[in-house]
Amino acid sequence: MKRSEEHTRGTADGPDDVITGSRLDRRRRSTVVAACCAAVLSASGMFAAQWVQSPAEAAARTRAPSPSVITAPVVRQVLRNTLVFRGTFSDGRTISVTPTSVATSLRGSQPAVLLVTGVFAQAGRRVEAARPLVEYDERPVFALPGTLPMYRDLTVGDQGKDVAQLQKALRSLGRATGGDPSGTFGSGTAAAVRRMYAAMGYAAPVADTATGKEQPGTTAQDGSSAVHRSTGSQPAVVLPFSEAVFVPSLPARVVSVPVHVGDTVKGPVITLARGEMTLTGFLDPSERRLVGAGMKADILSEATGARAMGTVDSVGAVVTPGSGDDRPASDGDADTAAGGSAYVPVRIKSSGRWDEKLAGQDVRITITAAATSGPVTAVPEAAVSAGADARTTVTVVTAAGARRVVAVTTGVSADGMVQVTPAHGHALQAGDRVVVGK
């Protein structure tokens, strides 16, 4: 029996060892899993703690930061007023040419209708003397230098200031008028007119002598009718009222050419400026005392981007639209340009010649005017405070961050700056920093 029991126990040693090892492994795995779960829970708690806060913490996080101040330096400078207002370029006085008849030439019969046969000029361009600008019925319209308007046809035998002006214009073109006295249209002047027309590529107009009668000319501005005369068998040369236009200065600027080839002549075929462009600004009456002759002006056309510099030529009296105030005719629609409000006309002149791109433009005029005779102590307007005691002060912030209140007296203000003078016993100098906001 004993041997049998031992044999049985000995046989059971293998399974016991297996059972014991299996239980140990399970315990170890359970421990590892529990540790991992604890680690995960701990990490999750730490992560969640970052998003969970107490009411006190929330209040602390959302509390406004401590207030700080904005400062600006005290400066020493000349205060200047920058004035910006509108202005309009106009053509000044202009002269238009409206042909009313065709002068007789030796090339053929008279046309039945006035028809535009050529256009050689463009608006905004400058034209020289004795150059065809527009052509109607193959006759040229051209400009000559002179201040007296063309008011009649000129031909041999005519006398007057207009003849003297023609002779001067011919000589400026290098066309000698021979021995003709000044103011008398003689053979020398006639020869010079022929040469001028030949240089333009046209035959000179002449009086019609085929019938032995005087040939009616064009209708003058005063309604009178000029006549062409002939000398002997040679037709008299004529300078027609409808072809020549006198302009004070050349080259002249073309204001408009309202016709095209093929159009019937029913009105002006070309308009020229009798002088340079003029610029008139419309200044607010409250700023009149700030602008004077000689001040520099910056001009800008926002439409074209063109810029120019000018000088104030004159400052006029206040104009109230609709009140019957007189103003120069060249102002044109000044009431409209000024917005229907009272304004002071300011004439701006150019040191040279205005850019042609500015013709007819509404522009912005900027004038910088000195408001003080010399450098003054100044601070931004926002730095000045007025207390209940009527004292005016500024607050200075020192390098260490301390603040001190300085009583001041204010003076001239311009462009956001104001002149300040510290009261007796107070110090304020350029470089100090003053509070302008928080």
Quick overview:
This protein has 438 residues and is an alpha+beta fold. It is built from five helices and 26 strands.
Could you walk me through the main structural features you see in this protein, from its secondary elements to its overall organization?
The protein contains five helices and 26 strands. It is α+β, with helices and mostly antiparallel strands. It folds into four domains: 2-62; 70-77 and 375-437, Beta Barrel (conserved putative lor/sdh protein from methanococcus maripaludis s2 fold), CATH 2.40.420.20; 80-91 and 276-370, Beta Barrel (Elongation Factor Tu (Ef-tu), domain 3), CATH 2.40.30.170; 99-267, no CATH class. Strands 1, 2, 21, 22, 23, 24, 25 and 26 form an eight-stranded antiparallel β-sheet that branches. It has a six-stranded antiparallel barrel with strand order 3-16-19-18-17-20. A hairpin with a 2-residue loop joins β7 (134-136) and β8. The longest helix has 48 residues, at 2-49. The N and C termini lie far apart (107 Å).
> Which shape, going by the Cα principal axes?
elongated
Secondary structure class reads alpha+beta
Number of strand segments: 26
Flag low-confidence runs: 1-12, 210-231, 326-332
Radius of gyration: 47 Å
Number of helices in the DSSP assignment? 5
Portion in helices: 10-25%
How many domains? 4
Strand residues, percent: 25-35%
Task: Please describe the topology of this protein.
Blueprint: H1 2-49, H2 55-62, E1 70-73, E2 75-77, E3 80-90, E4 94-97, E5 116-119, E6 126-127, E7 134-136, E8 139-145, E9 154-155, H3 161-172, H4 187-200, E10 215-219, E11 225-228, E12 238-239, E13 244-247, E14 252-256, E15 270-273, E16 278-283, E17 296-300, E18 307-315, H5 334-337, E19 344-350, E20 362-370, E21 376-380, E22 385-386, E23 392-397, E24 403-414, E25 417-422, E26 433-437
Parallel strand pairs: 8-13
Antiparallel strand pairs: 1-26, 2-21, 3-16, 3-20, 4-15, 5-7, 6-14, 7-8, 9-12, 10-11, 14-15, 16-19, 17-18, 17-20, 18-19, 21-25, 22-23, 23-24, 23-26, 24-25
